[in-house]
């Protein structure tokens, strides 16, 4: 037999026992040709474009899932940032565009659609501002639409006016979805250095340098890495790194086979393969568990940042060898609500917001799915965002903030979102004010690292 | 499709007639066995087959359903997966 039985059984074990999956197949669709000054025509153009491009997305993905026997969890769409598409439209409220996206997403049967977005790192156009102001209502009146705003890059610095606005937008979004624990905020993320080809929500959008229609694939397997690390007998940290690298290689290879086949069948360009360890609430499918397998008593204790740095780097190395199309974010995600190990660590008091912030300097994305008290002032949320944007800007990496000020809840309470979003213990934020700092506005200039041309 | 070869795995508690039952379904669907190996691993009956499908418009999902159904009768898990799943994953 050409393929070794042990390899076959290993693959089957990864899928059956260790939650290995293709987390998402994301079709990126350019909406640049949909622009129109009349909002009704714009909406019609958008609806037609999405439903035409993606009409076979779900069926094709399901067929490929059956062919290879690897579960594909989510089917998604990302579109050109709506602020750009709707710029010429003078309508002050863009909620109807979000509702059009939602309707198109529903009609083609996908799980999420991302791209109710704006890129405002250096400043805002009237269209950007209209979009940002529409975010709370848009997220409250849709189910599948995700929104992201890029407020900083290494090249442009941090737009602190936008950062100040973000705190207020997040508060308002939480308020409008207060009967569901502020779930609107789970669909909204603020970015520094947002990648154009990220298949993961809520931050996915179809960047303006992308082709007409692409297929990006997000592969995930924290459970597989966790079990591989735990199977090692008294390894050194070098051995652990080696083991993670090899495992990441295998996971990436599988994602590439599936992504290319889906793209081929849909006659779309294969974009990137994003190998990220994105946890799920399932036991063992946890990034925190991997860190603990390296020898930490509880995630968040001293040494956690170092362990995470090792993990993230090894994942990237394994992925880079396995495919020439590795992109997006590729690394380890550390959302709190979606990771059973992280939730436990918060509940036992070993993991704080400050430590999470430190960890974000060495991993993918940033402060993700963190519940904070509903009474947290908008300026404090903006300040949390500013800190995270600074980490991204200075370190030339992507960072993001997705926090949920849960209406009516305080530290020690728990909010349930259900499904992949999981549940989140409300975490403590610093009670001292950042009001004056945030209210100054303006822009934090691009750092000296920006001058690399 | 690059090739139409599939890996079929049957895993579960050993019982009389599993091989006969499973291969009967394969014959009904005109699926040819290229290679077959069977071992007991960790107390589990494990059969791995490399199968070939020559028809152009083969109805894979009905075949998968029939195989899984037959497996269910014997209390074993049957999977039919394209060989690329394994080939690409482990080899450079």
TrEMBL record, chain A:
<comment type="similarity">
    <text>Belongs to the UPF0210 family.</text>
</comment>
<dbReference type="InterPro" id="IPR007841">
    <property type="entry name" value="UPF0210"/>
</dbReference>
<protein>
    <recommendedName>
        <fullName>UPF0210 protein PV02_06660</fullName>
    </recommendedName>
</protein>
<dbReference type="Pfam" id="PF05167">
    <property type="entry name" value="DUF711"/>
</dbReference>
Automatic annotation (TrEMBL), chain B:
<dbReference type="InterPro" id="IPR050990">
    <property type="entry name" value="UPF0237/GcvR_regulator"/>
</dbReference>
<dbReference type="Pfam" id="PF13740">
    <property type="entry name" value="ACT_6"/>
</dbReference>
<dbReference type="InterPro" id="IPR002912">
    <property type="entry name" value="ACT_dom"/>
</dbReference>
<dbReference type="InterPro" id="IPR022986">
    <property type="entry name" value="UPF0237_ACT"/>
</dbReference>
<feature type="domain" description="ACT">
    <location>
        <begin position="7"/>
        <end position="81"/>
    </location>
</feature>
<dbReference type="InterPro" id="IPR045865">
    <property type="entry name" value="ACT-like_dom_sf"/>
</dbReference>
<protein>
    <recommendedName>
        <fullName>UPF0237 protein PV02_06655</fullName>
    </recommendedName>
</protein>
<comment type="similarity">
    <text>Belongs to the UPF0237 family.</text>
</comment>
